[in-house]
Structures are given as C-alpha cells and as structure tokens.
Design goal:
It is a single chain. This protein has 3 domains: 2-157, Rossmann fold; 169-342, Rossmann fold (3-Layer(aba) Sandwich), CATH 3.40.50; 350-427, 2-Layer Sandwich (GMP Synthetase, Chain A, domain 3), CATH 3.30.300. Helices cover 30% and strands 21% of the residues. It has helices spanning 13-21, 61-75, 94-104, 147-152, 181-189, 237-247, 267-279, 296-310, 330-342, 350-363, 401-414; strands at 2-7, 39-42, 49-52, 79-87, 109-115, 136-138, 169-175, 207-213, 216-222, 254-260, 283-288, 319-321, 376-383, 388-393, 423-427. Strand 14 (388-393), helix 11 and strand 15 (423-427) form a beta-alpha-beta unit. 34% of the residues are buried.
Length: 434
C-alpha cells in the first residue's frame, strides 16, 4: 500500500514525511518550496510506502506544471490514499478546496491532516468540515502532538520484521549547482526522476532512487549543489542542503563528482574534490557537457594535466568526459563503477604487503634521522574502503612528507589502487597489532 503527501508549500509535508519514516531525508525550513523533487520511503515498522511531493499552488502556472509532472508519475506507483496537509491557520480556503476536488476524481481515499495545530488544549474550529472529508487528524509536528494518532492510521499494515529497500551498491552525485547532476541521474534511470532547470540550485534536498544493473540493485543519490561557502547564508535552505550533501559521503560506496566542462575546473571544483576525496571510499570525476566544447581532445589533455598537478595524492582517479543531455558515454561511467569499484577486491595479504615494504624501502631509503637509520618493521592493511595501510617504524613522527608520498605513489602503482585516496598511518608502537 502507498500513500501520497500533498498540499500547499510550507504546510509541513516534509516534517510529516520525516516523522513517519524516522528519517531526516527532507529539509525542513520556514521558507516555502523547500521540497523540489518527490521522495519515497517506507513508513517505519510497516510495509507501506509514503511519497512526498513539492507543494501545490493551483493558481500559479509554473508550480502547477511541476505538480502535474510529479503527480502523474507517482500515481502510477499504486497510490491508494492521499494525505492532504493543510495549515491550521488557513482554515477553509478556496485553493485547498479546489485541490481536494481535483483529487476526488481519482477515486482514492483522502485523509485530511491539519498541521500546526499548536494550541491543542483548545477545541479546533469547525471550518475544516466544509471540505466534506470524514477522516480528519489534527497534529502539531513542532510539538509532537497527534503524531501517535497519525501513526495509528497505518497500524493495520504493521509487519513483524521491517526491512529497508535492499541494495547491493550505492552511489552519490556531488558537484556545484547547475553542473548537470540531475540530468545525469535522469539519463541513468531512463526517465525524468529529478527536476532539472537552467536555474542553479534546483535540487535543494537530495533525491534517492534505485535501478537494476547486471542483476544488482544500485542505490543512487542526487545531492544538492555545493556552492561557495561565502555565498551560503547561515541557516538558509542552501546551508542545510550542503550539510545534507556531505552527510552522504561516508555511507556510500562511491562518490561521483560532476563538473561543468564549459566552465572548466575552478577553485570551488577543486575544493569539492579535496573534501570528498578525504572522506569517501572511492570517487570518479565526470566532466559533463563535453558536447559544448569545440576542441575536445585539447580540452581533455589540459584537464588531465591540471588534475594531476593539483592533486598529486589522487593521480589514480578515473576521469570521464560525457554529455548527460545527449546521453553520450553515460553508461560507460556505470560500467566502470561496476567493474573497478563495486566488484573489485581491495584486500591485500599481509605477506605481500610486507614483501613490498621491504623492497621499496630498500630501493630508496629514508635519509638518516639523528645519524640513525629508519627501521620499517611491519605493515598491515587496517581498512579496505578506502584502502588504509598502517606501517610500524622508528621515528614515525619525524618521517619526511616527500618520503611518505613516495611510499603512497609506489603502493598505488604496484597494487593498482584506483579511484580512492589511499591512507597511510605511521606508528612507532612496539606491537604491530595495536
């Protein structure tokens, strides 16, 4: 069974969605229009799905187009009940009445949720009876009033064991506003899942969906554009959007950083690459809108050189040049992720690792420290994604940075480590297992 949250902007649909799904997927903000894409999630402890939609403004043509686009797609998901949300202060009004009358023609059950009923010690007004809906629940998300009553509406669907949507691998798409992240997502899924627009910042809350590829279920997240810090006002929608974008880094298997090719790579792109490469398990770089570049081969050569010079520690990152709009080379990115990241085993045996350590430190020895030789005793892999190696040696806190880079570059080349920033930890502990 599936439910659809619907109503005017800022009625509290995202707050209700988060409370019913025990999540914070959707941004809750006093500014109207925070939700700009539809979202789907299981209601906690049930087998029922709930969908959240952008707010409906019947008398404004642009929002009406957005509403119709998502509404028709979601109706195909076997929606059985509309959860229509109204602010208590709005009482009976013509916009909501017109919306509800439009919904009646679909012959679905309608539950009227009156949110922001904050003075719950008083009897509510009778205006809402004019909508002609028998099932009415008064709640206050901010005071957690009436939420238990609302949850009981779904109680007949409670199951013994609750499981989230299962998936084999996960991807998140990062980048500046208007780099083409949503268009890339739509190209992968094969339909317009995410709202796209030439206006930067269309995606304000992240979009989650799933697709099947080579008999595997892949979770994909389209994050909000990461703008320059100086341009993001504290506590604004963009502030929370960027915060949510970075919350995804550690929980996904691979990060895709999308860059607008026609704007070339700038300081903000490099900042995003640095931030995400430091925290993610693996990354690939995608330069989108390559169809708008005239001298493509010259452009590609310059980009690869620039990345190599700017990020010496992540020279092993794969770079793609695509056009999401024309769907050029889009599937190649998923082919690569599947073969070289999802299915790749990065576990290295301790014996091979120590044979390698003895060889490379013998070929190029660290300079003496206080006239004493550095003794590299032992190496062990402590993490697989990202590959993290712990090396036990004398004078670990005095090792030269250029020698650390030498070991890391040799390691990446010799063990063919791709698409991640390898981490080395140096310790002077006498016990290699500590």
């Amino acid at each position: 069974m599936s439910y659809l949250l619907i109503g005017k902007p800022n009625a509290g649909k995202s707050s209700i969605f988060n409370l019913l799904t025990s999540s914070n997927y959707n941004i809750v903000h006093p500014e109207a229009g925070t939700t700009r894409d539809w979202h789907k999630e299981l209601i906690t402890d049930t087998s029922s799905y709930i969908y959240d939609t952008p707010g409906v403004l019947i008398n404004q043509s642009n929002n009406n187009i957005i509403f119709n686009k998502f509404f028709n797609k979601i109706l195909n998901q076997n929606i059985e009940t509309f959860l229509y949300v109204i602010q208590y202060k709005d009482g009976f009004n013509q916009i909501d009445n017109f919306s509800i009358n439009l919904l009646r023609k679909y012959n679905k059950k309608i539950l009227l949720i009156i949110n922001k009923f904050d003075n719950f010690k008083k009897k509510p007004i009778d205006d809402f009876k004019e909508y002609g809906i028998l099932d009415v629940i008064f709640i206050s998300c901010s005071h957690n009033y009436g939420i238990d009553i609302l949850k009981s509406f779904f109680s007949y669907n409670i199951i013994d064991s609750f499981k989230d949507i299962s998936f084999d691998f996960s991807i998140a798409i990062f980048g500046k506003p208007n780099a083409g992240k949503s268009t890339y997502l739509n190209s992968l899924l094969g339909y317009q899942r995410a709202l796209t627009s030439p206006i930067a910042g269309t995606t304000s809350d992240y979009v989650v969906d799933y697709f099947h590829y080579k008999k595997k279920n892949i979770k994909i997240i389209d994050t909000a554009g990461i703008g320059r810090k100086a341009n993001i006002k504290n506590k604004s929608i963009n502030f929370f959007s960027v915060k949510k974008s970075f919350e995804n880094i550690k929980i996904i298997d691979s990060a895709i950083i999308l860059i607008d090719a026609k704007e070339e790579i700038d300081r903000q792109d490099k900042r995003i690459i640095k931030l995400i490469s430091d925290k993610s398990k693996s990354i690939i770089l995608i330069f989108n809108k390559i169809d708008l570049i005239d001298n493509k081969e010259n452009y590609k050569s310059n980009v690869i050189l620039d990345i190599s010079n700017s990020f010496s520690e992540i020279k092993n990152i794969k770079i793609f040049f695509i056009s999401s709009l024309n769907k050029s080379n889009v599937l190649k990115t998923i082919d690569y992720l599947f073969e070289f990241i999802f299915l790749k085993n990065s576990k290295i045996s301790t014996s091979k690792l120590n044979t390698w350590l003895k060889k490379v430190t013998g070929e190029n020895q660290h300079p003496l420290i206080s006239n004493k030789k550095i003794n590299f005793k032992y190496a062990v892999q402590v993490k697989e994604k990202p590959v993290t190696i712990k090396i036990f040696c004398s004078y670990s806190n005095k090792l030269r940075n250029n020698y650390k880079r030498y070991l890391m570059n040799k390691f990446n080349n010799d063990f063919k480590i791709l698409n991640q920033k390898t981490k080395f930890i140096f310790s002077s502990s006498m016990n290699p297992y500590v």
